[in-house]
Every structure is written in structure tokens, then in C-alpha cells.
Amino acid sequence: xxxxxxxxxxxxxxxxxxxxxxxxxxxxxxxxxxxxxxxxxxxxxxxxxxxxxxxxxxxxxxxxxxxxxxxxxxxxxxxxxxxxxxxxxxxxxxxxxxxxxxxxxxxxxxxxxxxxxxxxxxxxxxxxxxxxxxxxxxxxxxxxxxxxxxxxxxxxxxxxxxxxxxxxxxxxxxxxxxxxxxxxxxxxxxxxxxxxxxxxxxxxxxxxxxxxxxxxxxxxxxxxxxxxxxxxxxxxxxxxxxxxxxxxxxx
Amino acid sequence: xxxxxxxxxxxxxxxxxxxxxxxxxxxxxxxxxxxxxxxxxxxxxxxxxxxxxxxxxxxxxxxxxxxxxxxxxxxxxxxxxxxxxxxxxxxxxxxxxxxxxxxxxxxxxxxxxxxxxxxxxxxxxxxxxxxxxxxxxxxxxxxxxxxxxxxxxxxxxxxxxxxxxxxxxxxxxxxxxxxxxxxxxxxxxxxxxxxxxxxxxxxxxxxxxxxxxxxxxxxxxxxxxxxxxxxxxxxxxxxxxxxxxxxxxxx
Lengths: 251, 251
Hints:
Chain A is of the alpha/beta class and 251 residues long. Chain A has 7 helices and 13 strands.
């Protein structure tokens, strides 16, 4: 049986990145798309708790079914498992995200939120992102790496609670680096642009500061040096290394 | 100088949980509240990227300043650092959340999203949650533990990238357990309730299934046995244990 692959994203079901990823995945298996009807960038692992969600079939052809959903990427994956999928998928991929999800961006990303939810459902899951926010970004250099990483994941599986955060820089690529999440933070994050009535309003903006630019084992280093970065991420947030020390606290 | 304490939540600036937490923290230091103007439950680490946000002063008295913000809990913490705080706070606390943020709920919670953002800014940060969704929940049993855990955190600090996820069950409490994040998943997550026109719409609902109910070192075990659970969480999502093995993949 051909692999069964579920796809979602946070840029919306019609974004070029997910259309490109869908065509690639159809080379590997039967594809089920369940993605937000419009942009959900920066939605993290948000779930919709205060209103109902809806979904509808967009397209059903040989080897491909596409649904849009009014919810977040995490809602999409949950909904797929509860209402849409024919069987447990062999692989879940999200993206291709228009923009980097490296370093701390992994926690803000709706695309990675979808990846985490796939992982939480026990299926090998990968988020793919290109470091280019442009709507007409060129995903072509990234394509062979996406196929190879997906094939390796289908073949090897992933440990329980582990999923992959894969990012690529723009242009020609030198290869793949398995990396760790780089330390850093967004700085000067808000820009005040008055509204049409002259009232203050604040746009999220700013720049990312890399706190360890010389470290060669991070995702940011890989991206800044022309490599695809692959960070295995774990959904158990417990700081296991600090657990024992904390037990000595006087509580 | 008295400690300077920043507070946020995801239930909204006027929720009983944050008002209770604010009164407690005023026993320990000078308090700055920056919280969403209304409910933001399940917002995870979502950030507002597609529209500007606004904020306004609600109250300024001796030792207490309160702002509301139109954004998410993560936006609130970012905004506080960029626009509102007088100096770097000594402690950031979020909550008291109306409802559990134990086990996998840690990744969906807007309250924990605020905690993570505090941690990302290098300040010791704690999320407090009570396993009771009721608006008029009784936080009183939890109060001495909140004070003690906050005092210990002010005294000891926390390692880089580590923050605390603190949950309490309802009613009388037996003490504190330092615990790890329990494995488990939400099941049967959507409930179809037709709208006024008879059209399908789906509400997030379901129940949490604990995958390791016998393990006594988890947050769920602590909560089910009358203890306050304290899980140290780490913001580096890298699956360090899998990094080396993954380098043997053929990519």
C-alpha cells in the first residue's frame, strides 16, 4: 500500500508553499490535505475553544483529497484525526512555511504547531520552512531535500514524542546539518504606526538576535552557511536535568 | 528594593484568577499587570502578526499598575518588555489559570505561553493553574503554595531557559510534588452541534487520556492524589538524546 500522508500549514490552504509540498508528497504516497482556509501565521499550538469550527471538501481526485478548515493548524490536525482521515497516516508534513521557523521561532510557529500535534498523535511528523517570506518564494532548491528527509523518516520512523523542524535558506544548498535549536531572542519587537485617526497602535516587528553566532552546531549557523537545518524536537518539555536539583527546594 | 513582579494570564485581565494572584503578589513586591482585555484560552505561544495591537492603563496605585492589551498572553509579555516595564522584573507569574495546564495541555495553554515568553526574556517565570474551570473557583487552598513557590523562585532563581508549570487540584492540598510532564492525549475531540440553520459545526471537547496512570513521578499523578505539581519546563525543544543517532541518517 502506498504511504498515506497528511499535510497542513499555517499560511493557508491555497498558499504556494503547501501546494508545492502537496505535489512533492504525491510522489511518495496518497495525500490528504487539511489546512486553514486563510493565514494563521504565528498561531503556535493554539486551539479554538471559544467558538465552533467548520471544514469543507475542496478537491478529491486520484491520490489527493483537500479540505479547508476555519481553525488553527493544530485544530486541523485534531479534526483530521477525529473526522476526516481514512486510517492513521504514515507521515505528517506541514509547510512549506513562508519564512523561517528556526531557533525560538519554533514555539511561535503555527506550522510547527501542526507538526507537534501530529507528533502528539504518534505519527512521524515534519515541519518544512523556507527562510523567505515572499508569496512567490522559489522552493525548487529545497525540493530534493524535502523528498529525501521525508523518505528517510518514512523508512526509519522517529522516537516517541520526537518530530522534525526542517528549515532551508534561500537559493542553492550545500547539504543537510542535523542541528540543535539556537539560543536567541527577538528584539525591539513593536513598531508604533498610528491608525487613520492618529491613535497609537503597535505592530509586531523587530529583529532576531542570535545569542551564540559562533556555535556551529545550531540551526541558525546551518542556515547562515547555506545548509538545510534539521532539528529533532521533543514534545516533553520537562527540564529533566533540573528535576533532581529542584527537589531540594523548600516547598 | 522590593521585588518587581510582572503578571499576565489567558483568561483576561478581569478574571478572578489573575485578581487573586495579583493580591498575593502584592505581598511579595511591586506588581505590574499586563494581560489580555478578554479571554485568550488555548492561545499557546501565539503572536499577533496580521494586525496591530493596542494597550491601555486601567489602574495605577501604590505598588500596583494594571494594563489591558488586545493581544495574546505572549504579546502581553513582549509588549511589557518593549513599552511598559520600568526595569527588568525579578519574577514573572501567569494565571491563576481557570483549568489544568498539566501534561500535554502545557503546549496549548496561553497562560503557559506567557510563562514561556517570560522565560525567553531571561526572567524566572512561573505559570499557576487550578484544575477548576469555574469562574468562581476557590483559589484559597492554593494561596500558601503560590506564595512559597514564588518566594523560593525569587530566592534561588531558575536555570537559563527553564520555567515552572505549577498546577493544583481542587480543595485541600497535601503538599508539593516536583514532577515530570505526563504522557497522554485528548481523545474524541470534536462534538458536532448544528448551528441555528442546521449546518454542521464542530466544538473542541473530548477527554484527556493518561497514557501512564501508574507512574508516580508525573504531574497528573500528583494532581490526582491531592498534591500541587511543579514541572520545570525547558524552552530548548531539541531532542538532544536523538541528535547523535539522527546524524547517521542518509540525507
